Amino acid sequence: MHVTLSPSSVRGTARAPPSKSYTHRAILAAGYADEATVHDPLWSADTKATARAVEAFGGDVLRAGDDRLEVSGFDGRPAVPENVIDCANSGTTMRLVTATAAVADGTTVLTGDESLRSRPQGPLLEAIDDLGGQAFSTRGNGQAPLVVTGPVSGNRVSIPGDVSSQYVSALLMAGGLLEDGLEIALETELKSAPYVDVTLEVLEDFGVAARHTDDGFAVDGGQSYQAAGGSYHVPGDFSSISYLAAAGAVAGDESVRVRGVYPSAQGDSAILEALECMGADVAWDREEGVLEVSRSDLEGVEVSVADTPDLLPTIAVLGAVAEGDTHITNAEHVRYKETDRVSAMAEELGKMGVRTTEERDSLTVHGDDSSLEGAAVDGRGDHRIVMSLAVAALQAEGETRIAGGEHVDVSFPSFFDVLYDLGASLERSA
Hints:
Elements: E1 2-6, E2 10-15, H1 20-32, E3 35-39, H2 45-56, E4 60-63, E5 68-72, E6 85-86, H3 91-103, E7 107-111, H4 122-130, E8 134-137, E9 146-149, E10 156-159, H5 166-175, E11 182-186, H6 193-205, E12 210-212, E13 216-219, E14 231-233, H7 238-251, E15 252-259, H8 270-277, E16 281-285, E17 290-294, E18 302-304, H9 312-321, E19 325-329, H10 341-351, E20 355-359, E21 362-366, E22 376-378, H11 383-395, E23 400-403, H12 415-421, E24 425-429
Parallel strand pairs: 2-15, 3-14, 6-7, 10-11, 18-19, 22-23
Antiparallel strand pairs: 1-23, 1-24, 3-5, 4-5, 7-9, 8-9, 11-13, 12-13, 15-17, 16-17, 19-21, 20-21
Helix pairs in contact: 1-2, 1-3, 1-6, 2-3, 3-5, 5-6, 7-9, 7-11, 9-10, 9-11
């Protein structure tokens, strides 16, 4: 699908979409449990992949209306899947359920689409081997397809922290089912650390004890997953909120108001601090869960995305309309997402008249040397690239045509509907 946007002002009220990160973890936690109801889930391409995986391991996920999932779990004893688990484009699904496969008594095969089959899984496979299981890449390159044979029996493992925090989250979620629990020592500094905090928060809500240690994390053994009152409520997603907040900052006429924005462990809430540092007009009522952002003159800043890789595309767009340079640092791990987001944003914004300087670990956007112009751009099959380019299009001179608009289904299926309702001029075509 192609989406063509014209310069627009936006205003009005939208609702924050549910968190993809929390939804993934909640569906799997409910699968680890006997049963649970997941309220307000994000039902997207990625989270459907996690639901299918839970079903492959012996659970059942029933969508009951638009606002909840009824999950019958496998009660801590995953079955050996009858078929290959297809994780589609969801890296979170693959990493979380690779650890689930290591608990099952038998062999599981996991794969995904072309993009997912290019993403690194090696450290997690090595950790499973070190714990007494067997795990390997069929191509011998640490990438899917993966073959995992369990059950693992060890209770201590070390793993690098600078490739993906999802390895740690996966092991923590599975570790509570092991008889002796699991201690995870970090070999390097943990990147995207707030995502592990999200995992710890979900574990606590499902009655599973896990904690930080001096050198990493630990989870007690022999535990059972059980949501308080049998229910879990998914909070709003700050990664998705970032696009609505950025739209308000660059094109807000009066203000863009977003409901359902409550404090949580999500690292991507840092987008609000970044906006304020750039001079945006931001008001957040945490108790009422209401965020308001309106257009203002922005100034370039230096922002580290060590813990918030998903924010790089949004911040790059803000830098394109700001005065001075916006220097996005600690960004090397952002290259290993659905696409290399550092290069993708440099190249696609370049088509729109934005000058950037790309280095291995950073992206600098030169706002003073840029003038946003409408252009034909490519979303690179990456939902976050598509949505950030759509925000840039609101301020570009002339029409912007984005290829691959359908990929917003991964995390924010209603994104273009919401943007249209806020006043954006856009058309969709095959």
